[in-house]
Target: Formamidopyrimidine-DNA glycosylase
Amino acid sequence: MPELPEVEALALDLGGRLDGRAIVKVHVPQFSALKTFDPPISALEGTLVDRVGRVGKFLDIEASGTHLVLHLARAGWIRWRDEVPAIPPKPSPKSTLALRVVLDDDGTSTSPGLDVTEAGTRKSLAAYVVRDPMDVPGIASLGPDPLTDDFTEEVLGEILQREGRKQLKGVLRHQGTIAGIGNAYSDEILHAAKMSPFKPAGTLEAEELTTLYAALRSTLGAAVDRSRGLAASELKGEKKSNLAVHGRTGQPCPVCGDTVREVSFADSSLQYCPTCQTGGKPLADRRMSRLLK
Model:
């Protein structure tokens, strides 16, 4: 799932490609992906792209005062195409194409564009056409952005105290609490901070708060720096190659060499290093316990 660093890099890459370009046509072959009806999707046609930005994990393409806001969900992605087919895409349950933006030809013989795709059968990708990004319910309910200047250690401390006995992992990835952090980077932040994902949020001492805040800012900041300047096609590989524990179950921890372990849930999992994060004690994995009985 694209998280804050990847969406930030996507916004930078697409901002350079789209700035000042005219949107000629928007096709929505996966109509369930479009979550709004006013303004209609046709309101984007004939507009000029002013900017591309990020709000949490949402991508915001602003064109002549109208916003195309995209949430890529778990399996969505955006692909730049130097030339899109002249024939409009047709709806197909087997196709991964959810939305296509066709741009002006810029004096050439080909029309470039963007393909917004979603792999898999679980269709969660969402597109909104709005006059103000705050009209998107998911944006209106977002917590603070963790990379802004006003997201201080004190702000994080207040959040953790407010969340009380809730586990750190869940607090970090809940978008209404802190915007932009998902499953992967919450694992990475907690590994960098050497904290258990199950540690209650409100129990951190002052020194632990300082450690967690530094890990959060440095982990996300470094990921943004590595991703800056990369094309959209390179971002997934860059993210995967720099993860310390997430998605690395059974592999050695790059810090201590212990085996990275996993806790599975109904629709997700977390990864951690016992030596670095839990005093050498493996966390209970109820799903695996049931399978081994």
